[in-house]
Amino acid sequence: YYITNNLRMNEVILSIAVCSLILYQIVSCDDVVNGMVLIIPQHKLVLGRTKENFDSKKDWKKLDVKPFLISETPITNTKFSKFVSKKKFRTEAEVFKWSFVFEKFVSDDIKEEISNSVKGAEWWLPVEGAYWKHPSGPGSSAGRKPDHPAVHISYNDAVEYCQAQGERLPSEPEWEFAARGGMRDQQYPWGNGYEKNRMNIWQGKFPKENKGKDGYIGVAPVKAFKPQNPFGIYDMIGNTWEWTSTVFGVDSQTRMPQYTLRGGSYVDSVDGKFNHRADVTTRMGNTADAGSDNIGFRCARDATRKDMDDRKTGKQEL
Q1: How far apart are the first and last CA of the chain?
Q2: What pLDDT does residue 191 have?
Q3: Nearest to 200 by CA among 222, 182, 185
Q4: What is the reported pLDDT for 87?
């Protein structure tokens, strides 16, 4: 195991705890200070496979994942606000002048003005004036939630943000490799067993009762819980869905391409009895212009030779 020799002792201890050598994977965490984690895969990824769904007769595809960097957390309101101010950017929800908000967070006054909802998912309400800056519609403010993930973000919005940083959206294999934390075939980023207070999901009778046993009933701060895996990455599972660059399929009604979202959100469950089961295999698709109060994103980029060389310089073995 290697680590840069200019880390203070407390940083060394943290790095050993969070960025430990995994049997098949070496990870450098030097870039965490810049909000990115370098991941150097040392084994192939079997996308979607867990010990629970393993079938020896199935032809599981093994994918090569090249070294890459990925955001330590989803992109926060603070970061997105700086981008908007600098680029004078308007999200698609702003252009459309509405977005979907979970009914529990919509004020009674606004509810009275809404006459339609999503058939079969009536808890999602189309709220005029809802977008990243006003996540629950008029009267709500992202300014009071600086460390929360930016939501109501479409695929197109996310692409624009990442490109402005010289980055891109992670591919689905990159996202899952990062979520798994160097382990193979496990159900969660931390291992195979469900653990309380590791992710923000729905706890109670959906959609009317969320007991909030994890401390939250809606979107939580990106570092509300400790890192979910040994890579030191936060918030991969639960809280908000995250866009990837991978095409999911084609929308059956509009025939528009759909892109893959990963990780689940605060409305999902531990067992999948309602909505999605929140684990490292959870995925769904949506069109590039879609947004709601449980959709966010994080960025990634290819690891350069300089990234790799910087990890070799000034390192000592512990």
Answers
A1: 6
A2: 95
A3: 222
A4: 97
